[in-house]
Amino acid sequence: MNNTSTLTVQNVVIGVILLAALLAVPHFLKLYHQDLLIYLTINVLAVCSYRLVTLTGEWSLIHAVMMGVGAYTASLLFIHFGLDMWFTLPLAGGVAALVAALLCFPLLRMTQFYFLIGSFAAGEAIRLTWIEFVGVFGGTGGLTGVEPPIFWGIDFIDPIPYYYLSLAIVSFSLFILYRIENSRVGLTLHAIHWKAALAESVGVDAWRYRALAFIVGSFFVGVAGALKVHYLGSVSPNQASIGFMVFILIWVIVGGYNKFYGPIIGVVVLTVFDESIRSFEVMRPAIYGIVLILSILFLPLGLESIPGKIKSWFGVGPAPQDPPLTDQ
Amino acid sequence: MAILEIKNVTKQFGGLTALNDVSFQVEEGEIRGLIGPNGAGKSTMFKNIAGFSIPTKGTIVYQGENIEGKKPHAIAEMGIVRTFQETTLFQELSVFENALVGSHIKGRTDVFSAILGLDKQKQKAAADKVRDVLEFMGLSERQNQLASELPLGSQRALALAIALVSEPKVMLMDEPFAGMNAEETNHMMDLTRKVQESGITVVLVEHDMKAVMGLCHYLTVLNFGQVLAHGTPEDVRNNEKVIEAYLGGTK
User: Fold this and answer.
1) Which of A225, B20, B27, B43 qualifies as a cystine partner to B225, CB 3.0-4.6 A?
2) ipTM higher than 0.90?
3) Average predicted confidence (pLDDT) for chain A
């Protein structure tokens, strides 16, 4: 948790190569895959913001719905007020954060499994509101007609500019999430996770920090939701279903939730993998399922633990620890 | 003047009375021992003082202010910090990070300062404080190790360090000597004395009689949720009722 400077030559070189690769990659893809790349970029923000919520040890099932809150907010602001993306993006995050803040009062009375179920119920209540209030939210069909911005003479309806825009916004958001985790606030969140009572005994208001993680995480997934709807053009209750929530969970767990970059690896690898087995059509869910089970069995700490494991086989560096079975 | 006054505290769990009309005062600067057989209500008393549990009846006054019913973090902020039975640490964090959590009250920051790095000054002060306390506790060499890798004696010292970093006025120590060998006990006794000499009032729940008799200035003995005796270690040692409670009555 110490803020040590990591600006070494090696890191700069890696950073430059990574950036070049990220900028170059859409030029090698077909249109369909360019779309997929944009959604992948947005999903990276969804999983990383989810990790912030899980830092205190509370796993929610409402994150996908919060992404929907962001998407609906952006859509309504665009459709009714003609606000373009520069305004809808922060406002979508703000509304998601506000909804989260209100939900803190009932939800954070619960912890662990009860919080999980409670958050699911709250999420379904929000989703049903979208379905039932047809006049405002468009019912099961949702809202359509949302457009990307036109700025500096660039029409962001084209995938490559929109990808660059998403990449910039997501990168900036990740930078902020990273700063939070590596600050005193992040240390406190970790402390609450491992021993809430001990943290409270030295003055930590655990409730407030749980609320903070939930609100900030919801803000960023709200931004992700807005970013998605401005490209996709429409939002429906189905996008925020428990099915998508389960994907967020899978990406985070398979990637590894102990490190900041774990969920990023998870979402990227599984998305690419899912695409690469597209030709097996009928077998696809089965293959996907088997890979998930195998990865959780043999890599309980996620894909991010592979380099550490390889190092320990060759006797350089310590063996990675298995995750604790209980957090107490 | 008494820094902490327990006035007629009763705690009931359903039909069970864990504390029955308990009253005692803790003087500023002393080491006070709270002893008694298993189930006497010592830990329940601690939980009530530190806000982890609320008394059914009675008041707890700290520096002239009623604190019963306040949340643990609020009580910690007022200067009463507890340590836990056995080794309660952030096992997955380093020794330094463990102690750093203890500096929460002075080192806490809001999200925006954290993102923009506006709290550098504050965090540096907190880190300096942590280094001082780790030095004081003899843990400096181990500051980068994981808490879970420490031997028992050092783990207890670290638990003490976390509490100390928060700069408490009153420290409630719950069985700090449990499971320690003679050497570790002596070391822990020295540390506890150093804590008291630095101006902190210590209240100690402990079964290790050697440690209790050697450390405490004054003892309060609980039995079946009631105060059985007050006095200096010498008085208590010779108190008929206390001997009976510990060794079993002959009547």
Assistant:
1) B20
2) no
3) 89
